[in-house]
Amino acid sequence: CRYLPEFGIRPIVLTVEERFYSRLDPGFSPPDELQIERTLVMTTPLEAYARWKYRHGLSEGEPSDRPPGEGTNGVGTSAYKRQILALLKTPDEFFGWYAPAVRAGMRLVAQSPINAILSTAPPWTSHLIACKLAGRSGRPWFADFRDPWWGNPHRRALPKWRDPVDRWLEARCIRTAKRVVCNTDRMRQFYADRYKDNPSTKFFTLPNGYDDFARPSPGERTDSRRLILHLGDI
Known about the structure:
Layout: E1 12-16, E2 35-39, H1 45-55, H2 79-88, H3 98-111, E3 117-121, H4 125-137, E4 141-145, H5 162-176, E5 179-182, H6 185-194, E6 203-205
Parallel strand pairs: 1-2, 3-4, 4-5, 5-6
């Protein structure tokens, strides 16, 4: 959003009110001219349950200390509880944003000359919001997949019945999107092979990068050692 105006694009960011973030970066400051629309988030049954446990002294820490449902699929979870949690976290634990975001998005489409919609996921709720907005408004939608949705090996803890649900939701998004952005060529080929009924030109690669706007100047080194930083999860 900092650089898009250089190319004649005026972005509008649709997000949640800051009090709904699980964590904040106090050092981040958005560009002054950037329009940011913030919405409420509906309380999901999972969040209501977490707050009930907190009020009755059954859990440690305030409910807002972490995203709702985080850490609830650990070892020792009963099979019944695992099924209920998977149902309440469909497509993910952030589904409470769906209805407020769709309402705000349609208002923005009606008020502003919006030419396109862009969403990035996970969380997958973001794609479902954009899919709904694209269907209602007729605007082209660019769906950015930072990870695979259906069949993601990191989601193996989910029960088997979630596979067809996630597969249907992903296919619906792929079918509706004008373009599908992938962060590696391997992932682009993966989606092109999975959805052969879509033209291969729908899928393209945009590698991960970083914003060097505030990059500090490198200091002088006193030896020949190299410092390597992996910024992410292993």
